[in-house]
Amino acid sequence: MKGLQALFRIRETYIGIIAAIAFQIIFFSVWMTAYDGVNDRAENLTIGFINEDKDIGQQLTNEIKASMPFTTKDFVSTGQAEKELEKRNINMIIHIPADFTALLQEGHDAKITYSINQANASLSKTMMENVAKQVTAEVNHKLYPLQQGEIIQAFSQQFTQLPLDQNTALLMKDTVTSTMMRLQDRAVESSIIKTNDVDGFAANFVPFMVIISSFVGAMVMIMQHQQAAQIVQDSVSKWSLFWARQLINFGVAFMLPLLTIGLMHLFHISSEEGFLTIYLFQSLLFWAFLCLVQVFVLIFGNIGMVFNICALSLQLVSSGVLVPKVMLSDFYIRLASLLPATYGADGYYTIIFGGNADSLSANSRSLAIIIAITLTISIVAVALKRSKSIHSSEQIVPATAQ
User: Which of 115, 139, 284, 382 fits 367 for a cystine, CB–CB 3.0-4.6 Å?
Assistant: First the structure.
């Protein structure tokens, strides 16, 4: 009982209990509200159409668009559509070739091509693949009865021209009709092209893994540095202590990417970018995490870790690694633009899967802006904090002795 009483005299004991409770409340609140109604916002996903067939293809395109819960966009050229797909402005391309109707009329199999960018959120990729399968099945369901009817009509016309008695012609017609109706064939085949695809299931989770490991690592590091700063704050000026912590943050931020890249090679995670590009991007990402975590700790002290727990959960749900950002509510979409994980996830999609290299530069600039803003806030917070007199204890003792 003495040990229990001793622990409950220390503030950190209560902080630990509160943190455990806060984790549960915050994660449930954030994740449940962020993903509530996601399926109802499927219209925020965009599918591009390239229809080069003006007969059956045009009719099918109109019917597919009318039955889809997604936003649709027409393209006149494959190159233009592929650029939009590469930039992740659209989620899939449905291409109906010019010879679609001709192949069907000749009795050959026609083909619809679906292009899906793999450098995207897991939910988006899964949904688009399911849409491709469903569209092909529905097209076959509509087209094959038409083909059956045309074939039966052609046989019927031929039977009437043959020198057969009427009963025999009718019997043969009925036999052909029943046989054709029993056939289950596919008039249209699907071809799914996965752009920016990589081998290995684990590669899909690299953006998510890097974000959560980097941010949690930043939280633990800043928390420990805050405790160390509290121990030495009586003997070191606040500015000397602050700039020392920034040097440590900068040094760790530019050393940690060596470990990240090494682990990616160790687990055979291939990348589409060079060593220097990955190194600099990961350095900026981790530095941005450190600066963001540091702001709350400098302003609120140890209680600031509660805000960092919120920031962790908010970034995981809004970064776009699990659910596309466009399927979130407007609040979370706007919030995502303020958090470094959003740009980290988008950048790592380019690093791991390839694609639009310009987006990597844009994401790096956004991380640099976040670093500059959070560092400025930290400087203001330290400036407003009251300085403690250095060696105050040594000054008090002699005065008491006199």
Answer: 284
